[in-house]
Amino acid sequence: MTTFADLGVDQDIVEALAARGIIDSFPIQEQTIPLSLPGQDIIGQAKTGTGKTFGFGIPVVQRLGLDPEPGVKALVVVPTRELAVQVYEDIDMLTSNRSTSVVAIYGGKAYEGQIEQLRAGAQIVVGTPGRLIDLAGQRLLDLSNAAEVVLDEADKMLDLGFLPDIEKIFQKVPAVRHTQLFSATMPGPIVALARRFMSNPIHIRASDPDEGVAQANIRHLVYRAHALDKDEVIARILQAEGRGKTVIFTRTKRAAQKLVDELNDRGFNAGAVHGDMSQEARERSMAAFKAGKKDVLIATDVAARGIDVDDVSHVINHTIPDDEKAYLHRVGRTGRAGKTGIAVTFVDWEDLHKWALINRALDFGKPEPVETYSSSPHLYAELDIPEGTKGRITTAPRTHAVKTQKAPARATDAAAEGEGGTKRRRRRRRAGDGVGSTFEQDAPAGSEDSADQAEATPADGAGTHDGAGKEHHDGKPAAARRRRRRRRSGAGSPTPGA
């Protein structure tokens, strides 16, 4: 194996890597770093999870020097917020023994902190296209001295429609610069982009010619499963022998949230990352997953490029991705840094044509997914699931226990009120004398606090029966109700000027 010191990397960066237990380089790093350090433009192509971040990050940090002048000298453009955080953390680690400052610029977060770091003189900016253009347009981000430019996951930029934004960004950086473009796949528009904005780039493909398109260290299992049985199958897979952290991908935000609620109810420790969550909530969920506080992460494709966790043992495709590129980026969350992994894909009956295309493109040789149910013997055998495993573990979530304990109290209160109380309320409403009461208003179904709210003493006007006849059934004070009744009857019409 080739060490980073062998590649000509500065000693302080080598020590920063060694402090994280990183000594030997991966093929993409071994091939790109020696060329990029002198300033050669690079197109790096390698499968996801093979160390591309250090492949471009080390040359950027080293070329800026030990003590660069304040102001933006390097720009790294990434397609998603999650990837921006991951790349920022890696490059910040590389600069731990230098005065170089790194800032992450992306949407969903307040401007103030990012602007403050820019004004403090940050030299390396890692950001998403939208927020970069926004701050540059407000003249809060000066890219005129950014002589180091990197496009990471360029094919995802194309998928998300960011190419016009990339062109705007290149108009704001110096004409003479060192440019690196890294991607797992290299479609035609990306090659055209490279020809326009790079100077005689060298295209480096770091892959074994005898290896298939998919990573050889990932075992791929494909099942044709019934939609109503998927949650049960997943719950049993999560109890497989040796399972580590697991990432589950869904097609929609609603499906992601529904699945995380279902798995937590079954006793698993799951978190979610999807577009309906605030950026702070997404970052907290990702941090809990990386730290091991949660061992299951349910995500939509927006997070597929930003989950860089070495000990993910399983990736489960709850719904099949749209094409082979999305498939590769999803399953690339496991088998990272040379480790092995398992990728399980569920194919619905109506999605068999999608699997046929993915199977042909990736040359899997699995044209017909195996029909599989939660009780299928081959499921247990292929995934090392212990015999007798069911889809619910013994430790129930705390919130479920609270609701179960509260339920008898609610029922007792309702029974104590009795039939007589109901009849009295009806008589008061028929009398129309302004001394009515209200029925109890429950919290929304599924709310963790619904039982507690039912037992709490309501404020005046809240529309909750208190037994004293102070409120009407709609929660309006009695005086306001009487005034409306007088206005409808025409009695007591006010005189002008009254």
Write a concise synopsis of the structure shown:
The chain has 498 residues and is α/β, with parallel strands linked by helices. Helix content is 40%, strand content 14%. The chain has 18 helices and 14 strands.
**Content-based structural category:** alpha/beta
Biggest beta sheet summary:
7 strands, parallel
N-to-C CA distance: 95 Å
Percent range of helical residues: 25-40%
CATH fold-level assignment of the largest domain: Rossmann fold
- Kindly give the count of domains: 3
Compute the average pLDDT: 81
Radius of gyration: 30 Å
**Tally of individual helices:** 18
**Approximate shape:** globular
Beta-sheet strand percentage? 5-15%
Number of strands: 14
The first-level CATH class of the largest domain is given as Alpha Beta
CATH superfamily of the largest domain: P-loop containing nucleotide triphosphate hydrolases
Low-confidence stretches: 208-212, 399-473, 492-498
CATH-level-2 architecture of the largest domain: 3-Layer(aba) Sandwich
Strand order across the largest sheet:
3-4-2-5-6-1-7
**What does the oligomeric state look like here?**
single chain
